[in-house]
UniProtKB/TrEMBL annotation:
The keyword Nucleotide-binding applies. Residues 299-394 form the Histidine kinase domain. This is histidine kinase. InterPro entries: HATPase_C_sf, HATPase_dom, His_kinase_dom, Sensor_HK_TwoCompSys, Sig_transdc_His_kin_sub3_dim/P.
């Protein structure tokens, strides 16, 4: 049997084979090698040879017991006058096992009986005293050195397995966190798309229902706005689904939708909000500069969410929307006056649309991811202010943090 196959055997089977091998060799040597001057090798000698070798079968489970039992059996074997045999190495093999799985102090304690039987074997074999001492000193030391090296390797491998398991767990946690962050980002995108467009559709549908018989042109205009807003919502939803459903076999199909809305689409957003009944005054200051993509999307989404909130909570309000470019940052401000008394124009606008309370949280998350700041608070005398300031440099990616804020959702 090759060493590689022997290593693949179960430990008990492999150790039992080693024990049987030592016992067989000891018995064969005693039976066929009979030098004068020693007791004749008989059945008792064969039994003691087996007793010295067979404890090796449990050397991994009971290494200290193996050393003591093997040394004791071999000492009795020598004490009865039998010639020294190959079984002198069975306690040494047991010592190797002790040093390979026990601390160094235990190994040195187990070396004592091994050294004793080595001395006894040397004296029984009529060796020179110097050779007896050298053998008794060197053999246990070498056995402990080899065994302790294995002991250190086993501990290092165990530690390496622990570190590997920790790294795998950390990697899995990072992957789960990345999935969570991506889901939150997708949820923000869906919230922005659905909340804005459905708010406009709800307002315009209510208007069309209100003036359907009294003002047919206004009703038609409202329904036209509903249709256009619905198409815009479908386009953005298709764009999100396209981003989520990118496959390698999409080559040759129609070109994908834009990755995300940009700031240059702000006039279209203002136009849609105006069609929903808001009175918007848009101003821009400073020299426009190219923005990092994530900042560009953030500015657009904050404007979209803020206008959506005005449509839902203050229909018919007057809104000041300003975009200011400075050397270091871009500042977007949306201020409304709260709309007519109670936020509703009786007979002209439907009731306000309830919110889910996630709008401001989503805006704050976007601003923090971009390394900027967002403030949102009610105005004295009515209305609401939203202002976001974002750096013009490429932001550092950060995990979103939910934050409670005052004011409307």
């Amino acid at each position: 049997m090759t060493p590689s196959r022997l290593r693949r055997l179960p430990p008990l089977v492999a150790d039992s084979a080693v024990a049987v091998g030592f016992a067989a060799v000891g018995c064969i040597a005693g039976a066929y090698y009979r030098p004068p001057g020693w007791h004749t090798f008989d059945a008792l000698g064969c039994a003691l040879s087996c007793l010295a070798a067979l404890p090796l079968a449990v050397r991994r489970r009971l290494p200290v017991t193996t050393v003591l039992a093997s040394a004791a059996a071999y000492a009795v074997y020598l004490g009865l006058g039998y010639q020294p045999s190959v079984n002198v190495w069975t306690p040494v093999v047991g010592l190797l096992s002790v040093a390979g799985c026990r601390p160094l102090a235990v190994s040195w304690a187990a070396a004592a009986p091994v050294g004793a039987v080595m001395v006894l074997s040397g004296l029984a074999g009529r060796l020179h005293p110097a050779l007896v001492v050298a053998q008794a000193a060197l053999v246990p030391v070498v056995a402990i050195a080899f065994g302790h090296t294995r002991y250190l390797l086993v501990r290092a491998n165990a530690r390496l397995r622990e570190v590997t398991a920790d790294l795998v767990a950390e990697q899995e946690a990072r992957a789960r966190n990345a999935v969570t962050l991506e889901r939150m980002a997708i949820a923000r995108e869906l919230h922005d798309v659905v909340a804005h467009h459905l708010s406009v559709i709800t307002i315009q549908a209510g208007l069309a229902e209100t003036v359907l018989t009294s003002d047919v042109p206004a009703a038609r205009g409202a329904l036209r706005t509903v249709a256009e807003t619905g198409r815009g919502a479908l386009d953005e939803l298709r764009r999100l689904l396209t981003v989520l459903r990118v496959q390698s076999d999409d080559a040759g199909q129609e070109p994908p939708y834009e990755a995300a809305p940009r700031l240059d689409q702000l006039p279209e957003l203002v136009g849609g909000a105006t069609a929903a009944g808001l009175d918007i005054r848009f101003t821009a200051a400073g020299e426009p500069v190219p923005l990092p993509p994530v900042v560009d999307v953030c500015v657009y989404r904050v404007a979209q969410e803020a206008l959506t909130n005005v449509i839902k909570h203050a229909p018919g309000a007057r809104v000041d929307l300003s975009l200011d470019y400075t050397p270091d940052q871009v500042v977007l401000a949306i201020r409304d006056d709260g709309g007519p008394r109670g936020g509703v124009r009786t007979g002209e606008r439907p009731e306000t649309v309830p919110g889910a309370g996630l709008g401001l949280i989503g805006m704050r998350e976007r601003a923090r991811i971009c390394g900027g700041r967002l403030s949102a608070a009610p105005r004295d005398g009515g209305g609401f202010d939203v202002e976001v300031a974002l750096p013009l440099r490429e932001p550092r990616r950060a995990g979103p943090e939910e934050a409670e804020g005052q004011g409307r959702p």
